[in-house]
Amino acid sequence: MTQNGNKSIDLKNPFELFGLEPNFLLNEQELSQKLRDMLQTVHPDRFVSSSDQEQLAAMQKTTQINDAYGVLKSPVRRAQALLQLRTGVDSSGEVTVKDPMFLMQQLELREELENLSVKKDMNGLMSFAEQIESMQEQQIAVINDFFQQEGENQELESDKILAEIYKLQFLRKTLIDIEAAEEKILG
Amino acid sequence: MALLQIAEPGQSTKPHEHKYAAGIDLGTTNSLIATVRSGVAETLPDLKGNHLLPSIVHYAKDGTVSVGYSAKIFQCSDPANTVSSVKRLMGRGLADVQTIKEFTANQLTASGIGMPAIQIFDQIRNPIEISAEILKVLAHRAESALGIPEGDSLGGVVITVPAYFDDAQRQATKDAAQLAGLNVLRLLNEPTAAAVAYGLDTGNEGIHAIYDLGGGTFDISILRLEKGVYEVLATGGDSALGGDDFDRAIASYLVEQAEVDAADRQAHQMAMLKAREVKELLTEHELIDVHFMNWDGQISREQINELMAPIIDKTLLACRRTIKDATLKFADIREIVMVGGSTRVPLVQQKVADYFKQKPLTSIDPDRVVAIGAAIQADILIGNKSNDQLLLLDVLPLSLGVETMGGLVEKIIPRNTPIPIARAQEFTTFKDGQTAMAIHVVQGERELVDDCRSLAHFELRGIPPMVAGATRIKVTYQVDADGLLNVMAEETTSGVQAEIQVKPSYGLTDSQVTEMLKNSIEKAEGDMQLRMLREQQVEASRVIEAVRAALQDNGQQLLSEQEFAAIESALRQLEIIAQGTDINAIEEAIKVVDTNSQEFASRRMDASIAKALVGSEVDEL
């Protein structure tokens, strides 16, 4: 058995489903407010005594909303969805980053994580996580700038954005690995 | 504090419209049932005034089954035929049994459904049957307390499960309810239920942590309560860690002191009972005299604290992980709520307070809070409350994955994803003319299949034979609002629905459930037929009522005249057929209504969403 990737159920525009303008920056409170409003009316809990068809439709609709919410909430997935929406570029595949500065930094960060893990330095790991978190914030700002420029430059440079999204993904992954290292130390 | 509400005669829900619903906490050590009466949720006592029903079942040689306190009597005198902590066996494998030490007194054997079973006299009882006995007693208690006439039953129940229960454990719980003849409105996570009980009392918005340490399970859930919506942000825990582990640690200390023979089962059982007594006494006292077998001595609270501390530390580690999963910090937690009898242990409260740097909330009886929350939710689900307020949004507790080459797991849906949720995966054949393939679904966080819980083997058949790689099979994994998984497969180029055979690793297939249900009804064949007919008629009137209401609501706006007429005629047909006695014909007529109203149902959802979004825009102004 071979397998061809793992996708969300419905790649319909998640922004549209939530009645939002397709922008990278979004108001998290507004997003969760809209989630609550929609689910108040279509969640399966509202259809416990309804016909099987309505129960099924409620489950499918809620599934779609939950899925779209997952995309919109995560900066990486939101950027990928927005890029696909605007340029048609599918960003779930392989990305090659040629930026030597970033590659260097990547190596250094991995090394730092390795060192702290070996030394079982809990405090070091915690402040390292804070450092990555602030890098993550900066990276989100960089991606936002790219999407903002689009209007001015007409053409969105999808290769460049893909590389920036990849960097954000890398930082996210590093944070997860830091957590795993902390867990290991705590037993 | 729960206030007694007095309603004006005109304001109360009309009695003939009131449907009876109950919340059931099916616990490892004790179980409870609660219901909402006159607007107040309360647990229901038995005739002797006991609210807790010990989750113990005894089978006598003459076939008499006793449950609760009447079964507890046999725990020492007839341990081989007395089953306690059966929840620990639900949805688990025989191989897990080595770690479940209570069952040394019972003879565990294979049951043919993956789960371990218990040999009692010449019969084999599986955990689902044993749990059903407990549920039956609770349901009966509710029916008599609510004055439900003979022959009628509860409209529906909400049964709580540990948030950390996996798919097999949830399915087993639902099967037990079905076997007990109960209509399950929803499986509700225990910490979420507790939050509901607390939230309605205090109306506190913000982020709450629910620390739930029961007899055999530990759960931690992080929830955000905002504008009547409870959103579970993350959940974690250990479905094989609980207060019983405290008892066991103390019991092995007692066994050591009294120099008990390792093979003496009865002595070990007595040590467990004594340990529980010691633990409970030391929540009040600092030092007590203990007599066990030939040993007399003193045990201090400090001594048992030392024995319990490592177990509590494990729970705190899970708390830390779950808060991280919710991408929160300890300082974000506004309140921490204590649930489960084991949180009465002073060391638990102290360690939790130290760890979260705040005093935990314990105002509702930790034994009853889950059942109370479940009752409130059951009341809302069955439609007794105007449902424009409370809504629970829960998550998948453990990641779902499929086996790939080399025994590795590929994650399909990560843990803490809001449910219901679905993912699709595309597969292709690797041999010419291949017409079948197998998918092994597992649940857990580890990378190797062997380290995760095996849920089921799905076998796809009837794939149209084509050259290798030409077929595209879309497999959809759907998790419903109960946290239960369903798998569908479709050949996308031809649109052929592949046939799926499910072999649950631990549990029953649908036909096995039906079979057990039949066996459990000892009455004559005629009664079974009558019961099935009655059930089908109830289903028919439920469908008619629901679809009619929908048509009246917005059928005119959403349907063309032709579509409207098609549904209406299907309904009329069903009404006529449902008055007859042909079970199959009624079932068919229901299907016709279903098919005709499928599109309508989906349009109604879209209309609701559009309305909700317009509503939120107005809110922003």
Structure description:
The complex is a heterodimer of chains A (187) and B (621). Chain A is mostly helical. Chain A has two domains: 14-73, Orthogonal Bundle (Helix Hairpins), CATH 1.10.287.110; 100-186, Up-down Bundle (Monooxygenase), CATH 1.20.1280. Chain A is built from seven helices and one strand; from the N terminus they run βααααααα. In chain A, α2 (28-42) runs antiparallel to α3, α3 packs across α4 (75-87) and α4 (75-87) packs antiparallel against α7 (158-186). The longest helix of chain A has 32 residues, at 122-153. Chain B is α+β, with helices and mostly antiparallel strands. Chain B has four domains: 21-202 and 366-386, 2-Layer Sandwich (Nucleotidyltransferase, domain 5), CATH 3.30.420.40; 243-306, Alpha-Beta Complex (Actin, Chain A, domain 4), CATH 3.90.640.10; 400-509, Substrate Binding Domain Of DNAk, Chain A, domain 1; 521-620, Substrate Binding Domain Of Dnak, Chain:A, Domain 2 (Up-down Bundle). Chain B is built from 14 helices and 27 strands. In chain B, the strands form seven sheets. In chain B, strands 1, 2, 3, 4, 11 and 12 form a six-stranded mixed sheet that branches. In chain B, strands 18-13-14-15-19 form a five-stranded mixed sheet. In chain B, β20 (400-404) and β21 form a beta hairpin. In chain B, α5 crosses α10 and α12 (525-558) runs antiparallel to α13. The longest helix of chain B is centred in the last third of the chain and has 38 residues, at 583-620. Chain B is globular. At the A-B interface, β1, α2, α3 and α7 of A face α8, β19, β22, β23 and α12 of B. β1 (2-8) of chain A pairs antiparallel with β22 (421-428) of chain B.
